[in-house]
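Dear support,

We are seeing what looks like truncated structure output for some complexes. This example has two components. We would appreciate it if you could run it in full and send us the complete token output so we can diff it against ours.
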Amino acid sequence: MAVELDVFVGNTIIMSEEVYQLWLDGYTVNDAVKVRMEGGVLDEFDAKADVVLSDTMDQYRTFQMCERLLHSPTKLANQLLFQIPPHRQATLIERYYAFDDVFVREVLGKKLSKGTKKDLDDISAKTGVMLKSCRRQFDNFKRVFKVVEELKGPLVENIRQHFLLSDKLARDYAAIVFFANNRFETGKRKLQYLTFQDLAFCAGQLINNWTVGAVDNMVEDMDVDLDKEFLQELKELKVLITDKDLLDQHKSLVCTALRGKTKAFNEMEANFKNLSRGLVNIATKLTNTKDVRDFFIDLVEKFIEPCRSDHWTAADMKLYLTHYTNSAHILDTFKHQVVWDRYMGVIKSCIFKMYHD
Amino acid sequence: MPGKLKAKIVAGRHLPVMDRASDLTDAFVEVKFGNTTFKTDVYPKSLNPQWNSEWFKFEVDDEDLQDEPLQITVLDHDTYSANDAIGKVYIDIDPLLYSEAASVISGWFPIYDTIHGIRGEINVLVKVELFNDLNRFRQSSCGVKFFCTTSIPKGYRAAIVHGFVEELVVNEDPEYQWIDRIRTPRASNEARQRLIFLMSGELQRKIGLKVLEMGGNAVVGYLQCFDLEGESGLVVRAIGTACTLEKLSSGSGTHTHPNTAPASNACNSPSKDGKEPVFGEDLPSSSGPSTPFRALPTSSSSPPPFSPSKPCSRQSSSSDTDLSLTPKTGMGSGSMGKDAGPLKTLLRQQTQTALEQREFPFFTLTSFPSGFLLHVGGVVSARSVKLLDRIHNPDEPETRDAWWEEIRQEIKSHAKALGCHAVVGYSESTSICEEVCILSASGTAAILNPRYMREGCLDLGGSDQRFEDPSPSSCGFCHIPYDELNMPFPAQLTYCFHCRRQKVPDVLFTTIDLPSDAAIAGKGCFIQARLCRLKKKGQGEANATAISNQLPFMEYELHTQLMNKLKLRSMNALFGLSIQISVGENMLLGLASATGVYLTALPAPGGIQIAGKTPGDLNTEQHILNIQKRINDTIAKNKEFYEVNPPDLTEEVVGSPIPEPRLRSRLFRSHSESSDELSELDLSHGKKDAFVLEVDDTDAVEDIQSLLTDASPPKGFYSCNTETMPGIYNWTSALQMFTSVRVLRLSNANLSNQALNKVFTDLCENLLKSFYFKLRSMIPCCLSHLVFSVAVPEEDLIQVAVTAVAMTFDKDQTQDKPAEKPITKGCSEAEDQLQFSLELCTDSSSINSQSSSKNSAAKLNQNQLIVVRSAGVPESSHLSTRAASVDYGSFADRCSTWLELLRLKAHTIRRGSVKTSRRTQSLAHSVSSLEHSSPLTDGRSRSLRSSRSFGGSSVSVVKMTPLSFLPGTRIVKYVGIINMFFIRETTSLREEGGVSGFLHSFVAEVFAMVRAHVAALGGNAVVSYSMKDCVLMENPNKNQCQCLINVSGDAVIYIRETDQEVTGSTANIRLSCTSSADGAT
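Here is the complete output from our reference environment:
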């Protein structure tokens, strides 16, 4: 007695968020049925396994048919095939484009290419995210990347408009696109402690302050590429470490301001030149694409790690960087205040975010 | 040149990529009507072309306008090779041809390809200019409105109900033409789709002509079906009820202004007599008054047909089962045209003169304005097995016509035998397997109020009826129309429990909806009888004979099952009964669906008693006791679940809600010696009686099994197959229409009948369970209008397709008083008007007939399922042995209850004010529900804002329901009938997700196309939606599958009951209904 065919179609789409999530997570129909039954569908309702199976199959088919539309979410609103209430549309899209932080952490900064796609089974094994789900997430990244690549205007806004995502999710995607475009290295061991949210925050800072879009908001790739002129100008900051007087002057200003305000004062004083050299060197090297990629690893190696080994607290860090930045303004021979601010503003907030265990 | 059709192609969107190299498409459009074709320019390299074409003008006859669809083909231009078709859109122009409906068709239509499904959308504008007075062109029937709805459409009143119209057209099926061997599947499918479009247009036009000839202007309850007869052709046939409809002024349409009723009542005055000569005279000669009863008078002397104790009569019935090869002589001889008693004759004289002039006094309507239906006799049905042969001359489909003619004659004579002059809730269907075809027709024999037959204003006339008729409308229809002393079959009669004046049967089976003013107790319940019978494979005549021999037995079995299940739920009446018998190569499937209800006018049903044939065996007795206990428990449980607590039961039958076994009279199955006891009045048996099921009988074991395996719906769920759920009145607005199809493959070839039955029963039960599960988020909820259709597409395959609607209701149903019903049921126009036009309209003729009926206390009412050609079928026997069951002891009691009833009635009528207050309450309720949903929608609209700015306006919501109304709303306009036929085929079945995936997307596509057409007509809902056909043919080995779906319905514009203005609030409606109509999770 084999059921040869079994369909159930409603005039308004029939879906359960639970089943949708199972589908998104890459469960097979049978596994999804198991999960649902264990989850107590049976208890709340007198349902046999075959009823749950039939329901799950129907929904899976519906989702599969919707998937094509979800690839360009704007179509979902004016397609005629399914009658989907607006709030359902929003849910469908938002959930489809949602991703697992553990997964995205693995591919962040990698080239969104076929090569990376081949590695997905390794990533799946490592993160515990099912391969099917990995593929969906990876394809989403790629799709968003491809669409916004050629668009003018602000990155986040473009993503939000084309994919009808919430602001939060659009920002996350902007970060992913930004990382992928600039190929930031994030996979190194030393960077493992950073979560996706840490890095997404940093990406947001970079996008808002260091890209072309920060000065001109009507060019292509404005939010994706770093502002070349700015990077050139950063070279001028070198004077802060190459000019001995300036360095000493800077140090004394900072130390005066810090004295007595922190327990780590001695370490700060001792390490000032090292740390300053580290930060300024990062700035001056950013014209090299290779060094741009190493931006985060450099930040960690040259600044965060030394501070951490000296047991600075987060408050110490804040205090130090604030004074370090502000003191530079008092240096009379230092002429590059604007560039310095643009640089340090981002560095400061990135380090604040990244300075944790 | 009476018409100019204008079409404009605006734009396309979401087109498929036709050029792989550029990932784009160079699309253009061909617009074709009749033999004229126009083309748009090619819009190069775009998936969202903006053609913005000129207006293409077609100058055509209105006959063509009715027959032909507008064909729009989207193609991809190719410089070097042939242009590739992307897909097509067929637009039915008919809705533009009558003034009240849509004036323009404008909107996005899915571009449909029979191989690829929906491929993008196209925006089209269509207009029609009609020049001449249409009525002078007799070949066309522009202006006749068609409604699928099987009641008088909301906002209209029926000035005259003319009666039955039918027509059929035949053609060769393109799929079976020689050319099909050399053309592509796509071309073949398109040829078929086009042909069926044409045929249904032609059919509608021809029916329209008949309506015009009768003097009507509309067809209500229009039912169109396709018979795919394979080699022998393609038949499109339709039946309907011709009416003269008048639009109610918008004021009187609203329930809130009942004062306008007297005004419209004026229409009823004799000045309207211009419309008088309705019957006979106007009819074409074939159905003229001279020939209506060709065969019947001769049969009037034939012996009473139901003589169950004589097995020999079975012979006569089988000889009666004619094949097309053996032309039938003496039509209707199998049934009885017994002359009614003189009293009866007198009583019905008036009506008969009106009705009997017609060839077929049939009505496809299932619900009527109160007062229209006087008495209901019972279900009448007729079936006939035919052998198909090739239709030689499509222009004269005489054979098919003759077949249906026979069946209808038979129905008519059955009705006559029940003392009824009309058949209501009438429908016809076929089941075809290879060359064998079963034609079926069924309906409910009834006596109608004669007033309506002449000049009856359906919605008004009932008023005086209420006062004149001795039987209150809440029970009047139950009173038997038959002469008590002259019953056509044995049955048990009692005095009506409501009025105590007239006789009622113990059970009542009908094919109509529960009359809105019927007095019931508790809630209704979906009842289904299922039966599967193996049959030997056969050929030709032998096969047909074998089938027709089986039919009566199947009907009997189904009937018994229904009866048992009804008893198990302690109910006493079935509404909406539909019995479907499907034929396959090696089996016959029978499925009877109905909605059970407890009519308080009828006696309380007895229980079911289990008896062993061989007493003494301890084991057996123990077993029997167990079963008996389970059955009693189930009955008790069901009573509680369906809240069946009839008021009079508790008042009068103190202390014995479930009868003691010894009080039960016996009912024997098939071989009963029933008739002896027929006239015996055994008072000692009290009013209760029970079925006795003897467990030694294997059939009985089966029955018991199937009785007990039927699970009642889970808490919070109710279900029914009628328009409204008896006992539930406070619907909320959320609804979810759905279609579900399941096909089961019988893996085990050598199944016994019994095992097969089990499989089939489980299939249906599991489907229901599955619905409950899927829709559980809508609790409390009712599945209404559950329509099951079964088929045997191939050997070993059973297909069940279901369409229904789930509707939520308000759990806190404080009181369900009859007076409140009309408000929520949306059919209150008539009610309101009734109450205010009481004194104004008195028609002497009606008084006449009514007073005579008052005098005839002996007037009876009878129900019985009459089976075709089954004069001797045991069927009729099972009601027989019961004794009359009225307790005569308490006459005084009865009088007092009757007085109470009268008082109650008066109270009801005085309730005007109460009603309005209730009304405001419901308004308040809907308002709050609106408010409820608004915060949500706000949130959503924010998230969607960007999409609107981006992809143009979003799609408007189109609700769909198989019912004729949408709860919480008011239908303000019918914009046209939807009647669509689609074929979908695939040669990559696996890639599309197997049969399920294929059908799932096809059904979704069909919904989408229906919605798009409705929206383009300006409508926002489809009512009376139904899926007539779903024919699936698969060949998994070849990776192929083909499916045909035929759907129909009425496109309407509705507004929320709370909104007095149509404008301004539509946006609200849309948003809030989306949020509420959201499906299950």
